[in-house]
Each structure stands twice: as structure tokens, then as C-alpha cells.
């Protein structure tokens, strides 16, 4: 039997419609959520993402600013721009597109962003809050994956979820969010021995490796839900996930396509984080 291909358009459509409604409600109280994106250099893939983010903001009725800085810009100038955006009442979410040129410290940049405007959930304070389950922004890609799993109606409590990848952006926060849903979580990575043996025990398999089509049917338990976080651009210009979609299709029960599911859902959570930050800033104003 063939897996059900998860319809990313349907899920993002439903979420973004809700966000748009909430944005309109907030507007009635005099606040328009605003996102600022900073992009340094000319990386063509980054340009595409940034354009998608700005477009998604506009469609949701949010305000957006894109700051395009040339690759040679100094770290000091980037930090000064962040400081300006931290002070700006129009901006509730700030995102600095990674990767940055080598002469600019990602750590310094992330830590310069006001904790309450951190749209990515990259700031160490927000990462700490995430660990202990306190209120704050959600890490965009992992939270998008949870939203996808909830949308298909899977019960996560007690399920074995295996995450492949241990990055600070996806793998690690993904594991924390799955734990919060009461899944039993295993993380695999490049040094894991007998990886297929472990991944083939997963009820839910989440691939976040960055290697095109690495996950094949021998990695997948029959009936497993397979979520593909990978967005790899091949030499042919085509996008490929970390999962060999065609190979796994008859083994999995559900599978996400690349492109068209986790990527757009990541942007959806970015909008949600900006909306939530705007609501919190309004509450803080009211409560003085
Ligand atoms: N500070 C920061 N935050 C990020 O969230 C961040 C970042 N830096 N740097 C780069 C990565 C990558 N990323 C993507 C988001 C959406 C799609 C997306 O929507 N992809 C479409 C395809 C787009 C295409 O055709 O290239 C899809 O999967 O359907 C892709 C990639 C966010 N990132």
C-alpha cells in the first residue's frame, strides 16, 4: 500500500487563515504585527526564502521589512541595525537569515536580538525557556513539524519518535517538543552506530540531516510516519529531501513531500511567533 502524502498546502492554508484572523483582531486594538528580516550577502537560496517570508507576512496582513546588507558589511553595523529594530515599535519579530559571512559572529548577532523579538527562538534565553517549558517563541521548523503531526491526528503520547540530526536549529529543539507531547524520543546522528536498526523502530521518523535522499526503506518501519525536514538543492537545480521519497512511499503510512510541506510550515510558525510577540507586547503595554 502506498503512503498518504501529507498535503502541506492544506495545512499551511488552514494555519495562515487563522493567523490572518488573529492579525485582524489585533489590528482592531491598534497593533499590526511586524517582522524584520536581515539578510547579508547574495546567497540565491536565502534570497528565495526571504522573499517567501515577506510575501507570507503581507498575505497575513502583517507589516514586514527586509534589510539587505552587502556581504562586506561589518559586524558592528549589523549589531547597530539590530539595536535599532529592538527599539522600533513597528517591529515585533526580528530574524537574521543564516548563514552569515565568516567575519560576523552568529552568536553575537543572535544575542543582540531582544529576547521578546526573537522570531526564530535562537536566543539562549528562549532556548532555555523552551527546555523548561516556559512561555516564549517556538523554534519554527520543529514547531511546524508538531503542527503537521497534530493536523494528521496522530497521538504522540507513548509513541517512539526518532529524530535524525542534532542541530541547534532542528534536531535538538525537535526532540524537546516531541518530549513535551509525551513521545519517547531517540536522537540519531552522524556517529550513531547501526542507524537503520534504530530508525526502523520509529513510529514517527523525522529526518533533519541535510543529505539528499539518505533515508531509504530499510530505515523505515512499515506503517511509520515519515517527516522530511531536508531541503537540499541538487546540481540539477531541483530540490530533494533527506528521504528517498519513491523508495519509502510503499513502506510509510504518511510522508511529507519536499518541497511543499515542512518548508512552508516553517514560515507559518515564523508568522505565528511574530503575531504572538505582538500580542505579548500589547499586553505588556496594557499592564504597564
Ligand atoms: N535565521 C534563520 N531562520 C530560518 O528559519 C532560516 C534561516 N535563518 N536560514 C535558512 C533556513 C532555511 N529556511 C527555509 C524556510 C522555508 C523554506 C521553504 O518554504 N521552502 C519551499 C521551497 C522553496 C524553494 O523553492 O526553494 C518548500 O519546501 O516548499 C525553505 C527554507 C529557513 N531558514
TrEMBL record:
Q: Where does NADP(+) bind?
A: 165-167, 231
* Pathway field: One-carbon metabolism; tetrahydrofolate interconversion
Q: What is its EC number?
A: 1.5.1.5, 3.5.4.9
Q: Note the subunit structure.
A: Homodimer.
The protein here is known as Bifunctional protein FolD
User: Could you confirm whether the keyword Amino-acid biosynthesis appears in this record?
Assistant: yes
Domain Tetrahydrofolate dehydrogenase/cyclohydrolase catalytic: from-to ranges:
6-120
| CDD domains per record | NAD_bind_m-THF_DH_Cyclohyd (cd01080)
Amino acid at each position: 500500500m502506498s503512503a498518504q502524502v501529507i498535503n502541506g498546502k492544506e495545512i499551511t492554508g488552514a494555519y495562515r487563515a487563522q493567523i490572518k484572523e488573529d492579525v485582524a483582531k489585533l489590528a482592531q486594538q491598534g497593533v499590526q504585527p511586524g517582522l524584520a528580516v536581515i539578510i547579508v550577502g547574495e546567497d540565491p537560496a536565502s534570497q528565495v526564502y526571504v522573499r517567501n517570508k515577506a510575501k507570507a507576512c503581507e498575505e497575513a496582513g502583517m507589516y514586514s521589512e527586509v534589510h539587505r546588507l552587502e556581504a562586506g558589511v561589518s559586524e558592528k553595523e549589523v549589531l547597530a541595525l539590530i539595536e535599532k529594530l529592538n527599539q522600533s515599535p513597528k517591529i515585533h519579530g526580528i530574524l537574521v537569515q543564516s548563514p552569515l559571512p565568516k567575519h560576523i559572529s552568529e552568536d553575537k548577532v543572535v544575542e543582540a536580538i531582544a529576547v521578546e523579538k526573537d522570531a526564530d527562538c535562537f536566543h539562549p534565553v528562549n532556548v532555555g525557556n523552551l527546555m523548561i517549558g516556559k512561555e516564549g517563541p517556538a523554534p519554527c521548523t520543529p514547531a511546524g513539524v508538531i503542527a503537521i503531526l497534530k493536523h494528521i491526528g496522530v497521538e504522540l503520547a507513548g509513541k517512539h519518535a526518532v529524530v535524525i540530526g542534532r542541530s541547534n536549529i532542528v534536531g535538538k529543539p525537535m526532540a524537546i517538543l516531541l518530549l513535551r507531547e509525551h513521545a519517547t524520543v531517540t536522537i540519531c546522528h552522524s556517529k550513531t552506530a547501526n542507524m537503520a536498526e534504530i530508525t526502523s523502530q520509529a513510529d514517527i521518523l523525522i529526518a533533519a540531516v541535510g543529505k539528499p535522499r539518505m533515508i531509504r526503506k530499510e530505515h523505515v518501519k512499515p506503517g511509520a510516519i515519515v517527516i522530511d525536514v531536508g531541503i537540499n538543492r541538487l546540481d540539477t537545480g531541483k530540490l530533494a529531501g533527506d528521504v528517498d521519497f519513491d523508495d519509502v512511499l510503499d513502506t510509510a503510512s504518511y510522508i511529507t513531500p519536499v518541497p511543499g510541506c515542512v518548508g512552508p510550515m516553517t514560515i507559518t510558525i515564523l508568522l505565528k511567533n511574530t503575531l504572538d510577540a505582538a500580542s505579548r507586547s500589547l499586553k505588556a503595554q496594557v499592564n504597564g
